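Notebook entry, structure prediction.
Reason for the run: the old model in the group folder had no record of what sequence produced it. Starting over properly, with the input documented here first.
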Amino acid sequence: MNIEELNAHFGNKKQLKFVEDASGIVMIEIENTLASARVCLQGAQLKTWRPRTTSIPVVWLPEDAQCIQGKSLHGGAPICWPWFGVHATEKNYPAHGFARVAPWQLIAVTEEADGATRLVLQMQDSPLRQQYWPQASELTLAITIGHQLSMQLTTKNTGKEAFSFTEAIHTYFQISDIEKVSVLGLAGCTYIDTVGERTSRLQEGNIRFVAETDRIYINSESECMIEDTGLMRKIRIIKKGSHSTVVWTPWTEKANKLADLASGWRQMVCVESGNAAVNQLTLPAGESHVLAVEYSTTAL
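New structure, fully documented this time:
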C-alpha cells in the first residue's frame, strides 16, 4: 500500500498516522494518551518511545538520524535476525542479519482498554530474504506503546525441517551520560567480552562504563535495571524467551567511525535482549519461538 492507502485502511485508528520521509521510507507515528512513538516500516524498527510521564525519551535516536533505503540505523530498537553479530560461516553477510533493513508491513492495530496502542507487523518476502535465508519461516513483531513499551518477536518455522538462528532486540536507551549510569541484574553472570581478543569473564558487581564495552552475557534470563543518576531515573528491562543480554557502548574511537553516533554516543547505552553465541536456538518444523521484552521507567 502507498501512504494514502495506508492512512485510508487504518484511518479509523485515531492514535496513529502514516508519514513518509524525504527518502520515501514510510513511518508510523503513534500519539495516544499514554505515550508517543515512531516505527519505521523498513526493518519494523521502533525509532523512539516517550511515555507522557517524562519529557525525555526512553528509547534513544541521534538528533540528525535519517532512515536510508537498505541501510541500518544506529538508534531506536533494531531487530537482529536470523543471526546476531557476524554470521557464523559467511563473513561477507551483513552483520546482525537482514531483518532490520527488510520491508515489513503493518497487519493489525488494536486500541487497548488502557489507552495503549498495539501494532502487529510482519516481514515481507524480498530479494534480501531470498538471498540470505532460504528456510521457510514467518517473522512477526508486536509492539505495544503505552506507559510501558512491550515488544514480542515471533519466529515460526513453516517448513518441514528444523533450523537454527540467533536474534536480539538491539535497544538504544536515552541516558544523561555514559559515566553516570550503571546496569544492575547481571552480577555473577558469565559474559563473552568481544572487545579485543574474545575472552570469557565473570561479572563482578554492577556494570559501570569507562571505556568501550561490548559483552554478551550468556545463560541468563535475569531482568536488568539501568540506573541513571544524571536523569534520576531507572529503566527496567524484563524479558522472556531470552537467554542472552548484550551490553554495548562504543566509546570515542569507535563512535567516530560511525557517523550517526559520533556526536551523541555519550547519551545512549544499549542493553539488548536476545539469544546469541552459545544460546543459539534450534526451532523444529511447525514450532514457534517468542522473544519478549518490556520496558518501564521509575524515579531513582
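Summary: The mean pLDDT is 94.
The old model has been moved to the deprecated folder.
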